[in-house]
Amino acid sequence: MSISLAVFLLFVASTLGITYWAAKRSRGASAYFAAGRRITAWQNGFAVAGDFMSAASFLGLIGLIALQGLDGFLYSVGGFVAFVTILLVVAEPLRNTGKYTMGDVLAYRLRPRPVRALAALSTLTVATFYMIAQMVGAGALVTLLLADSGLTYNVAVIGVGVLMMVYVIFGGMLATTWVQIIKAMLLSACTLILTLLVLRHFHFHLAEFFAAASQIAHQQHGQLVVSDFLQPGLHYKLPHGPLDLISLSLIFAFGTAGLPHILVKFYTVPDAKTARHSVVWAMILIGSFYVMTSILGLGAAVLIGPDDIVTHGGTNMAGPRLAQALGGNVFLAVVSAVAFATILAVVAGLMISASTSFAHDFWTNVIHRGVERKSGESVLVARIAALAVGAVSVLIAIALGPASNVLILATFGMAVAASANFPVLALSIFWRRFNTAGAVAGLTVGLLATVGLIVAGPNAMGIDPPNVVGATRHLIQAKPWFPFENVGIVSVPLGFLAAFVGTLLGREPSAEAKFNELLVRAQTGLGAEKAASH
Amino acid sequence: MNSTGRNASRQELARTEWDRIAASEQFKDLLQIKKLFIVPAFVFFFMYYFALAVLVGYAPKLASARVIGSVTVAYLFALSQFVVGWIIAGLYLLASTRFDALTKDILASFDERQGDK
Prior knowledge:
Number of domains of chain A: 1
Oligomer: heterodimer
Strand order of the largest sheet of chain B: 1-2
Helix content of chain B: over 70%
Shape of chain A: globular
Low-confidence stretches of chain A: none
Mean pLDDT of chain A: 86
Number of domains of chain B: 1
Number of strands of chain A: 2
Structural class of chain B: mainly alpha
Structural class of chain A: mainly alpha
CATH topology of chain A: Sodium/glucose cotransporter
Distance between the termini of chain B: 16 Å
Strand content of chain B: under 5%
Distance between the termini of chain A: 44 Å
Largest sheet of chain A: 2 strands, antiparallel
Strand content of chain A: under 5%
CATH architecture of chain A: Up-down Bundle
Order of helices and strands of chain A: HHHHHHHHHEEHHHHHHHHHHH
């Protein structure tokens, strides 16, 4: 048995143990959906970090920085900044006014059925697309890293799917949270060791390291050139580059603050003050992780070389190959196993947010108008939904195959969150006049604009020469209609605009009358959901 | 204080009670003080963040200038985003002790009124 398989099995065994423990403790809806609201600040900080730092952050960013230098590092910065939005604007009001989902906050003073139905649709779409991207990533990782272990793509995808279903269906939010905490610890430790190994290679001499990073030889248009990877412009070039960059920044500034699987984490703590402290914990973890990705990415560019990375395994393998170069096969095995654990923790978080939204928003509140007919019904529905969502994602991931372009799927989730979820969430908390029509318009337009622009943009459209096949081939072989890779510069303002215009079309006295209640509750926590008392 | 009793009473508050708290000087003070920190902090941070994209996109020469050894303006500016984010988080934690104290007062006078009934 290979070392990476052993490390990975150890992780699986301990998380299954946690799931068993959580399943025994978990009684009732608040225990299942919100871990009884008894998670502490540091625990939730680690869980949020474990929920957020996906395989795309760990494997993708190192590769991106190794190929694009500073331009790639801008992605790392972007992943961090939205936590300032979450800290200052979202976490505390959300914790005080909601129960289990983002839809709770919207339904507080708006007409519950239309807003909950759309909130559930948006949550399910974001979560499913994100989940498929993670699963395809997991499968691809296996075929690259564990080729000698006899595991295939399909086995890996099914394995990830089954494991996350076990965590979520039996262990609920409590098990998911602990899986994420352990993963965050493993990932942080692994990144720190790898960073120290890179720096040791340069005798802990930062000047020497950065000097090497400023002269990297690589191929460009068939010619060997030497580039400074600490300078911008390797990826974002004129004429559209700067605007594309601002567009990306817009998505990052608000996107994470509208990601349903991140938002639900703030319901697992006892009160708003704990939610606040947990965001700061998450900011410390995520921030230091992203700072280290710059050392790892530049280190991979120096020690392995951008051309070698492209030809041997692609961008996603830059990190694992760096680990192999510096720490040998044992460390490669550990890094691969941690990358796998990373995917599992993120996928479990996505799955529980999707199934919670289906059960709580759609089943209980839209179909049955807020009345739970039998006690425990919503938890049962959530479990069945988790099974269904998991099965569908596994099937789609298998149908797509390991070579599919997952970047579009992942971009999609973040862009929908920034353009549809965040505007209506923020307006419903802060704008007295905001009403149901505004929320419906904002969610619908934000969602449609994002999908439409991504499909019409260079991510999906492009003309490839016939020798480009598989993952890198564009879905639609035509000149893109929309010039930017990142749709935020158009879709975020459109989402806000639609929410404004929709609101101004009419007045909703009941929503305005309830604003004081929402405001007082959001700011003081009066009447907020309490932690389980045992 | 019986916490479940207090909790139940809070959840079945009449509309007039919420409006009364919203109109109280204490609550207005809390909102004012929160706004005084949050709005400038948020605006400043995101101007600082978008300045990075603008600098890198529109002033690549300046962004490529080397400051210490090979380290460029752009890289240092990007790293400083993390530091500034952490500083804002720290300041917010400091400021929030004041928010919490004011919130406690509001809840205490609410409990008093509930007790009188």
